[in-house]
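hey team, just a heads up i'm posting the complex here instead of the shared drive bc the drive is being weird again. everything in one block, sequence lines first with there labels, then the predicted structure for the whole assembly after. its two chains so it's a bit long, scroll down
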Amino acid sequence: MDALRNPVPAFANRPAAAQPRPPAPVEIQGSRVTELAGLAAVFAQVALIALIMRNVGLEPLAFRRVVYIAAVGFVINHLLPLRFRPRFFTTLSLCSMVVILGGTIDSRIPDLALGLVRTGTILAVGAMVIGLCHLPIGFWSRVALLVVAGCAIAIFRAGLWESGGLAVVWPVLASMLMFRAIVYLYDLATSPQRATWSHAGSYFFLFPNVCALLFPVVDFRTFWQKYYDEQALVIYQRGAKWMARGVLHLLLYRVVDRLFMLEATAVTNGAELVQFVVCNLFLYLKVSGVFHLVVGMLLLFGYNLPETNHRYFLASSFTDYWRRVNIYWRNFIMKVFYYPTFFRFKRWGQTRALVIATLWSFLVTWALHLYQTWWIKGEVAWSWPDTLFWTSLALLVLANSLWELKRNRQRKLTTGHYSAREAMGLAVRTAATFTVIAVLWSLWSTPTVGLWWHLWSLADWSTVGWGALVLASVMLGAIGFEVLPNRGPRIAATSKESHVTSRQFRLDVLYGAVPLLVLYSVVHPQVQLRLAASGSAGATDLNALFHVVSEKDSDARGQGRGYYENLTSQDEGAGQYFEMMNPGQGRRYSQPTGEVEGVHFRELIPGTQFKHHDWSFATNRWGMRDRDYELTKPAGSVRIAMLGSSQVMGYGLRDDEVFEAAIEKRLNTEHSGKGGFEILNFAVGGMSPLGQVWLLQARVRRFQPDFVVFIAHPNDLEWSNRDVVRTLRKRFSLPPAFPLEIFDQARVRSSTPEPFAVTRLRPFESRMLAACYQSIVDECRRMGAVPVYVFLPVPMDLPLDEKNTAMLLRLAAEAGFSVVDFSGIFSGHEPNELTLKDQGRHINAEGHSLIARELFDRLISDTKIDLFGQGAGISRQDNLK
Amino acid sequence: MNTTNSSEIEAPIKAFIMTEFLPGEDAGQLAEDTPLISAGILDSIATLRLVEFLEKTFSIEMAAHETDAEHLDTIERIARLVRFKKSPLVR
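-- predicted structure starts here --
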């Protein structure tokens, strides 16, 4: 710490020869042709990575754009003379920032003016922070000034000072500065080299950072020390390899998330407990995937940075886990907090100093994780699981460190010396470490300690059985990945032995390109279509798996399970950042719903005021997006219950623009002598026909409607399938009319992962939907209401699938609905005319007005419906029979 | 400006590393440019023990920021640091 007290770096008086300097750039061996061939080989791999990411919609569009920029930019960068490359990198970073920060929800084309303003703000504030680090005053005075500057930025981040369109700037800026400013200042105070503005600019404004707020803590000295310290193509190849690894991690995360992940509240037995614990640990793949991708991109520009994560599931001790899981974080904490603390207290003895330094480092780690959360998400909450997780990990690492200090751990120059006994010992230690870390991680990811404790009360023999299977796999992994592949000499002076003309380089290219080609083929839509067409059981499941892997943009939904998912989820809560990352994709659908006990459906929260961007509405005391109604139907009036999805709820519209309200108003105006009409809007976004059955039973029946108008959606088949599977998986009941035998025929059980179950049930979709329609009609008849079915297309999906539409209409008629076919209602209009500008799936006010006119006419003129005339009374009596 | 010859510094460092961290391993495999930190031989605990050894053996005082790969990744770099610390300019 002495070096930090003095503004003059401690090494300033060193003789030049003793000062560590960046190594001179290593020249490429081989001819120019060899060099260009090597460059093309690396480019081909990066291009494949970009194509795979595009095909499967991996990460938001803005992130993919950064990958495209890197793919082209690194080739140009390489072709430039070495002295121009740092400046090119900085320029490219700034241009990328303009493009990405100019993203808006309205268009896929960036708003460059907006991007320039936002980038300019980041540059100005960033330059001020860098300038503070360089002030010729004492170290701690500079720290104090940085804290003051941080507080000023925090005012904007917290929204205490409204910054309008610049709101997105603060989390991005914070992500660039929050740790790098600490590292930079520390390195300035302890390094003999003076950083130039070019060095600082490249370091702070790293271009992948704009699309990855959770960014590895890159070390400033390493960043420059290792710039082109190996042959360029060898560095690039490693970068491509890490990017490919990142893609694999992210795809594996998808598979775990979609097929195996369970919420803590969904765990009901010992086997599911193991599933929950293990899957939670695997969610970190999302972080390591992004880290590999962003650091891989930096390697493409010659920054030969170290690995960010290293086989962290195969750590053989707690200290080993700490060294592997987030290497940059560990290095940052060791450098800035651990070693300085140890050196300060080492006069108290090595053991005491180690205890103090370790505990202090973990306390700082915990605090900095909260600090990071606040800057990225804008909010932070203290919790017992978080506190207990870090406390436990700190004590385990401390105990492990003390043991290593006293007993020394086994290290090897070559791994080929492992005896069978040593290998088995390593495997057992790995399994034990995995167990403890997985259990701790499950605590970290569970909302409350009480719930976590309850989970363990579910443990039984199946927990032991499945746990043993998982641990056996971990042990095999330890043998397979840690012992067997490294039988030769472990250490090589890589800069001397790996070069573009070497066999090793060619092998690296081969090992990189072949898996990428296979992956690209697997996620290609044509392959999936062929699998779907084959129809065999194996092909069906394989297709489901590929569908999971290639489900576009499916990671954007905000899961928020645990610390890292909370940080990396980009849901609507991320506001402008979400919109910037998903340009031209419209606003994400949102509604104020709550879970309902005993079913998996969601309903609108009663009596709430909801605001979503510039759209707001209130729900009535019954949970309808509608005006208030009494529970008892007024005497002489006709009451209509309207069921449907977000189109019927009136997503994005004012209350008086929704067609349901317009029809009600018109009926009461033009037919005021009929005793009054009430149309109760029970619509909830995403509600399937199966959900409507529950809604009728649980919510509609008590309002005694005379008519039930069900506005069907073209997606009814898929939605019913999805909801049947979710109901089965949660072991909730299905309607009595439901053909339960199809589950056996389709080989579907409550434990079948949703994507597999949905795919296997696809041949039975019409039977499931028929059962749902029949249940709706039966329920209407039980309550004495006339069931009316209105088929309403989605303008953006036109032209309709005629076969699908005909089937839906046939099923509705067979079930006993009075059918109104509106499949041609939008003909003569362009889809864009009738949909919301910022949410293209939903119908706008003009479209609702059109529906209101047509549906009004049908309701009053359709003799089968018979809205008045003989009136509802006769229909009710008929139905009651 | 070296005040000590090569073997006076490199040899005891290598011997210490072999004895303390790599017992049973082939000393011939440990060259002066063999990476120690990046290859996982010199982890944080080993680094602290090496620092204690260097300070006692060569009567030097090390600073916290010198415990990185830039200074300690190879025997060559460690020796260079020791040699610098023992040079008259510093002393």
